[in-house]
Specification:
Elements: H1 11-19, H2 21-29, H3 42-63, H4 68-74, H5 78-91, E1 99-109, E2 112-123, E3 129-135, H6 143-148, H7 150-162, E4 177-183, E5 189-194, H8 197-216, E6 269-271
Parallel strand pairs: 1-6, 3-4
Antiparallel strand pairs: 1-2, 2-3, 4-5
Helix pairs in contact: 1-2, 1-7, 3-5, 7-8
Length: 274
C-alpha cells in the first residue's frame, strides 16, 4: 500500500475506509478522479454545498470580529441569512472564551499523523474545552449515529491528545472536553458528546488500529453493504451501478468540507511533536 509520504489522516479519510476500504484505496492511494456524479441533481447538490460554505464563512467572519449587522447586510440568500440569524440567537450559548474559529491540530497516530479541523474551538483556561461544529444539513441525525461517526471520535481524541498548546502547556483532561453539533436548519438543535479518560483510551486503540490496518493490508475489498454504493462516485468502477442516487434520498449528514483537496496551512496548525 503506497500512501503519499506526507499523507495525514482525517475523519473523512478514516470514515471512507470504515465505510468501504475500496473507496479509500481509489480516493487516497490511487488518487482516482471521480468518474460519476454523486446524485442525480448536481446543480441543486452544489447549490446546497455552496450555501453551507457561505454560512460557515459568515460565522468565521463574525468570530473574527466583523459586526453581525454588516454580515447580515451582505447575505443575499434567504436560507443562509436565516441560519446566520439562528446562530446569532443561540449558536454561542454557553460557549466559553477564548473562541478560536477554524483551528487545526495534528497529532501522531502510531507511525502516521491525524488532523482535526475544528469549526470552533473554545478552551477556557483551566476549565472546559468545547468543540463546536456548525451543521446546515436538512436531516437531523440521531445521537447514536453521530456517536459512531469518525468525526466525533477523531475530534475529541485529537483535542485530548494535542490540545495542550491551548491549555497552558498541560494536556486537557478528557473529562473537560465536549463536542457539540449545532444544526442551523433545525432551530439551533444540538447534539452533545462529553468525553472521559476511558473513552479516550478506547479511541486511541481504535484509531491506531485503523491506521496500522490501512498501512499493512495487502488488498482493499468492496463494502458488503451495497446501499453505500448508491451515492459513491466510484460505483461504476466497481460494477455497483451507473445511475446516480436521488438527491432527496441523499444523506446530507456527510462532511461539508472535501478533504481530498485540503491543503495543509502550516500557519493554522498547532502541531504537536513527540
Amino acid at each position: 500500500m503506497n500512501l503519499p509520504d506526507d499523507f495525514v489522516f482525517s475523519q473523512t479519510s478514516l470514515q471512507d475506509y470504515v465505510d468501504c476500504p475500496r473507496r479509500f484505496e481509489l480516493r487516497y492511494v490511487l488518487r482516482q478522479r471521480w468518474p460519476a456524479p454523486e446524485v442525480d441533481d448536481m446543480l441543486e447538490f452544489e447549490a446546497r454545498m455552496e450555501k453551507g460554505d457561505q454560512f460557515h464563512h459568515l460565522v468565521h467572519q463574525h468570530l473574527a470580529g466583523i459586526a453581525a449587522e454588516k454580515l447580515l447586510a451582505s447575505s443575499g440568500d434567504a436560507d443562509v441569512r436565516r441560519w446566520f440569524e439562528m446562530y446569532l440567537e443561540t449558536g454561542l450559548e454557553d460557549v466559553p472564551e477564548p473562541r478560536r474559529p477554524e483551528t487545526t491540530i495534528t497529532v501522531p497516530l502510531g507511525e502516521a499523523m491525524v488532523l482535526a479541523k475544528f469549526d470552533l474551538l473554545a478552551v477556557e483556561p483551566g476549565g472546559r474545552a468545547l468543540i463546536v461544529d456548525w451543521k446546515t444539513s436538512e436531516r437531523l441525525p440521531s445521537a447514536e449515529r453521530l456517536a459512531k461517526r469518525l468525526q466525533t471520535i477523531v475530534y475529541r481524541y485529537v483535542l485530548a491528545a494535542g490540545g495542550d498548546a491551548f491549555y497552558g502547556g498541560q494536556p486537557i483532561p478528557p473529562e473537560r472536553i465536549e463536542m457539540i453539533y449545532w444544526y442551523a436548519d433545525h432551530e439551533g438543535t444540538t447534539r452533545r458528546f462529553p468525553y472521559d479518560a476511558r473513552q479516550f483510551a478506547a479511541d486511541a486503540a481504535y484509531l491506531e488500529g485503523l491506521a496500522n490496518e490501512i498501512a499493512t493490508r495487502p488488498a482493499f475489498p468492496l463494502t458488503p453493504d451495497v446501499t453505500r454504493c448508491r451515492f459513491c462516485p466510484y460505483r461504476s468502477l466497481c460494477d455497483r451501478g451507473v445511475q446516480a442516487g436521488r438527491l432527496e434520498e441523499w444523506d446530507d449528514d456527510e462532511d461539508e468540507i472535501d478533504l481530498t483537496t485540503f491543503t495543509l496551512d502550516i500557519d493554522q496548525i498547532a502541531e504537536i511533536e513527540y
